[in-house]
Specification:
single chain, 8-stranded parallel β-sheet, alpha/beta
């Protein structure tokens, strides 16, 4: 099905929301920020969108580190960006990091195979402004003064919230992706088997639109990195696959064709109302967006059918298709994500010189999220999946194979595949 992606160079439309008024909730919430591998100031110090910075500072990574590494990753847990009982919580990245340590997939246990890049820089104004309007960026920064008095909600964006650290922490998460693009591209020039990158960051980004946030997402992390890859490294055709289950895995629509995107999601996850199978893009991007809404109950069979031949550089990696996830209504297993990571890695090696960076998007059950990301790491390392240790087959029910086949055949017909 996905040879289609080999010939695409643009992506299609989205259903944009606008940056509207910000409503402050009563009361003042105390926020406790602890240090992490990459530090972000809680009082809006550091990188400011009011200060123009035309260059992204480079990290001095020794060539031997890049040659030996199999995985490069950055963590940006946005500990201050948090609302109690919200599914997109500040426990997500720490849960993943804990799982990597417990399963001996961290640098402590893997030496030069697995490298965490620490103390990376936030994204600067120019990089973010290639994706988002400057009025949105400056408006969000100014809104931090309201957030300092308590949690705020952003009207018209789904349940998207902000705290006094949201702006800086969102810049940091976008900067993590840029750092990994730099590092993976540099490594690809040193040898035929560069490491894969993984931005373990939040807030997620794939719902964010030109003029504002949407659906838990603040800045379009993967879109910022894609534009940066074009501008800084001359990678004109940036391919993106999004396997998050939300129906509108929408990046910013650029005025020139730059992407091929493939969206795989659940038709039950209707937020925010786009992502229908007959939506194929508009303008320069017409015919280059492929949406495949899956029926409720779809799981491993569906994923294996759809991802037979992916073509990828950047991946919006959402783990909310897991059977334990509370939001999506699908029933993939940890092994599904191992299969996806393994296939994408191989195709990146064959088609993209091995340059590939994953970006964390959804996934709201801490157990399934952390085990699935850990199994993704094992796929990157060419080690056997541990899915059998994590998943109970009793939690699954029979998949609607007929509806899955019909959805795939309909998508093929729309795109003449």
């Amino acid at each position: 099905m996905l040879p289609f992606l080999r010939h695409c160079c643009a992506f299609g439309s989205h259903n944009p929301s606008t940056w509207r008024s910000i409503f402050q909730t009563p009361g003042r919430e105390q926020k406790h920020i602890r240090s992490w591998s990459a530090h972000c100031s809680a009082n809006n110090e550091g990188a400011s969108v009011l200060e123009k910075d035309n260059s992204q500072k480079k990290l001095a990574l020794p060539d031997n580190s890049l040659i030996d590494a199999r995985i490069l990753y950055c963590t940006s847990p946005a500990l201050g960006h948090n609302k109690e009982a919200h599914p997109e919580s500040n426990k997500r990245v720490p849960a993943i990091v804990d799982a990597l340590e417990k399963l001996e997939l961290s640098p402590k246990h893997r030496g030069s195979q697995v490298l965490e890049i620490q103390n990376f820089n936030p994204a600067c104004l120019d990089n973010v402004a290639r994706v988002h309007s400057r009025s949105y960026i400056t408006g969000l920064e100014k809104a931090m003064s309201k957030a300092s008095e308590g949690l705020i909600f952003i009207e018209g964006t789904g349940p998207t919230y902000a705290t006094e650290t949201t702006f800086q922490e969102s810049l940091l998460s976008a900067g993590a992706g840029i750092t990994l693009v730099d590092s993976v591209v540099a490594a690809s020039k040193l040898g035929p088997n560069p490491p894969l990158g993984f931005a373990l960051v939040r807030p997620p980004g794939h719902h964010a639109v030109l003029q504002g946030p949407m659906g838990f997402c603040v800045f379009g992390n993967i879109a910022v990195s894609a534009r940066y890859a074009q501008h800084q490294h001359g990678l004109k055709r940036v391919m993106i696959i999004d396997f998050d289950t939300s129906s509108s895995s929408r990046l910013i629509r650029f005025p020139i064709p730059v992407f091929c995107t493939f969206y795989l999601h659940s038709y039950l996850a209707s937020y925010p109302g786009t992502g229908k199978i007959n939506e194929v893009g508009q303008g320069d991007g017409e015919g280059t967006t492929l949406n495949l809404p899956l029926p409720g109950g779809a799981g491993d069979y569906a994923m294996r059918c759809a991802f037979d031949e992916p073509d990828i550089i950047l991946v919006s990696a959402g783990y909310d298709a897991h059977a334990l996830d509370p939001l999506a209504g699908l029933q993939s297993t940890t092994g599904t994500f191992y299969m996806l990571a393994s296939s994408i890695k191989q195709l990146a090696k064959e088609l993209c010189g091995g340059r590939c960076v994953f970006f964390l998007e959804g996934g709201y059950n801490l157990q399934s999220l952390s085990s699935s990301v850990a199994d993704t790491f094992r796929a990157f390392l060419d080690e056997p999946s541990l899915a059998a240790q994590f998943d109970d087959p009793a939690m699954l029910f029979e998949e609607p194979t007929r509806k899955i086949k019909e959805a795939i055949e309909k998508a093929k017909g729309i795109h003449s595949l």
